[in-house]
Amino acid sequence: MDFVDVVVAVGVIGLLLRGLLRRGFTSGSVLLALVFGGLGLWRGLGPGPGWLVWPAVALVAVTVIEFVAAGIMGSRLPRLPMTEVKAQLLADSRSADGRRQLTLAVAPGGAVMMFGVWPDRASRDAVMPGGGCPVCLVEEVTAELAGPDTEALAGYRRDRAAGTNRLVVLTRRDDDGWDAALEPVQGSPKPFRTAGCPVHG
Ligand SMILES: [Zn+2]
Fold first, then answer.
1. Which of 2, 113, 162, 179 is deepest in the core (most CB within 10 A)?
2. What is the pLDDT of residues 35-94, one digit of tens each?
3. By C-alpha distance, which of 102, 106, 71 is closest to 189?
4. 194 CA distance to ligand 1 centroid (A)?
5. Closest to 170 (Cα-Cα) out of 115, 119, 122, 103
6. pTM of the model
């Protein structure tokens, strides 16, 4: 096994484990996985060790399946302008029989995840941004409900800038004010990469 095979084997097996353990792909990691999958197939079928074919095939298969599944999930979600989602969330959160708790997050693919608790029910919803920036939505709703100076908002921005996505948990107090707190996300902690947002780039 020469040096190229060692590098390819480490890359293929590392990416395969990462893909299996940590769900959520960015376009960059899909490309990297396909490049290493291709290199693994080339070395395994050609001049390198034959066993390299199997992790390379698994890596390509896992990547394609996850990518297609994410695409199907994303295309099934409703698409709404972020301004409309924001207006709906704020109207409900300020009405007497509205949500008592609202958990907001932006998934790595850009969908806005909303978990709401009402006095009589709870529901989990998701929308794809059909115009507007999902990260702005989370920050603006947090600022509107818990105040622009809430520590959670500063923490959300700081962690996101450092490469760690967060859930914002907004809880209505008895006086109808709101408290905000941060929680870790399940799955990939990679923040959604925004495009064309004047605030987030
Ligand atoms: Zn933004």
1. 113
2. 999 999 999 999 999 999 999 999 999 888 888 887 777 778 899 999 999 999 999 999
3. 106
4. 7
5. 103
6. 0.69
